[in-house]
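Hey L., structure's done. Input below.
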Amino acid sequence: MHGHTHVHDHPHDHDHRGEHVTSITLEQDILAKNQLLAERNRGWLAGRSILALNLMSSPGAGKTTLLERTIHDLGATLPLTVIEGDQATLNDAERIRATGARVVQINTGTGCHLDAEMASRALTQLDPPMHSVLMIENVGNLVCPALFDLGERAKVLILSVTEGEDKPIKYPHMFRACSLLLLNKIDLLPYLRFDVGRCMDYARRVNPQIEILQVSAQSGEGMEAWYGWVRALRALGR
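Output:
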């Protein structure tokens, strides 16, 4: 009986390791292909002096509301176009279209993130003007979008104060990948038990270089600092 058990277990372990190696190889291939397409997107955008920002968050953090207010406040002086990413519906694209901005919707179905190929197709359809700003609203998810470069200049993370201050240490890769953290819905702080200082400390522990701005897309508080950040980054590309 002992001999039989040994013979049975060995091939099982071997097969499991083989599947693990295959899985890692496939993931590396997918990310490598995506990176190549992302660099092509980046070159296309740079050649037209277009600032592309990849906006990421969990669902309900306020990305679309932030975009609506940004377009409303900056649209007259800064050309803005939008790529909207969702698993389903055209709801967010319709909200953006109502502001007067040009927008293309990408529905990923069961996919939990945008990738560089999707972004490339959307860029062809959207055809953003030279010297403009392109906002890419990624699918609401704090994991997968951080892994996939779209060709953007910078990743921006929107975190709502309704989500809990420990998000940076729960989802460290997302916070590590981003240049800017927008701490949104600060108008709700009087009604919540949310420690702003602790959240910022956690974020900087994970990513010491991350910039942090406190904003309310609903009330407008702090939004001028966000607009200044966008303008400054755009000026660097000229």
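The domain at 2-236 is CATH 3.40.50.300 (Rossmann fold). Helices lie at 2-47, 63-74, 91-97, 116-126, 167-170, 172-177, 196-206, 223-236.

-- N.
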